[in-house]
Amino acid sequence: xxxxxxxxxxxxxxxxxxxxxxxxxxxxxxxxxxxxxxxxxxxxxxxxxxxxxxxxxxxxxxxxxxxxxxxxxxxxxxxxxxxxxxxxxxxxxxxxxxxxxxxxxxxxxxxxxxxxxxxxxxxxxxxxxxxxxxxxxxxxxxxxxxxxxxxxxxxxxxx
Length: 159
Prior knowledge:
Elements: H1 2-24, H2 32-42, H3 61-75, H4 80-91, H5 106-131, H6 140-157
């Protein structure tokens, strides 16, 4: 009886890493249509942790949870609009990878363009103001001083 227990103990310790790996595996969908819908929806939702990735691209735990929620709601028979509406209600417009143009997102949509136009206007104004600068005439004292400096500089250059 003892040898059998020892063999089972050794086998269970050898198989333990495989059991842990099995818990981390992501379940696959059997229905290809539902799987395609889940992938398409996941590509339209932003990962709230990574923020520059969709939940389809992210490996964050929250993204995995959101993908699981999408799959569950598809399995329940909800439409794409219902699923997206649920996510927006729960997480706000920020969860959408392409948020709608609304009063609260105007700066998000048009801010970069406004900054570009403002930068161009500032550049044009600076260039025009440089053109308007006219040289002023030197006074007699300034001419005398400039002549003395030039004479001094030319004397230093000669060996």
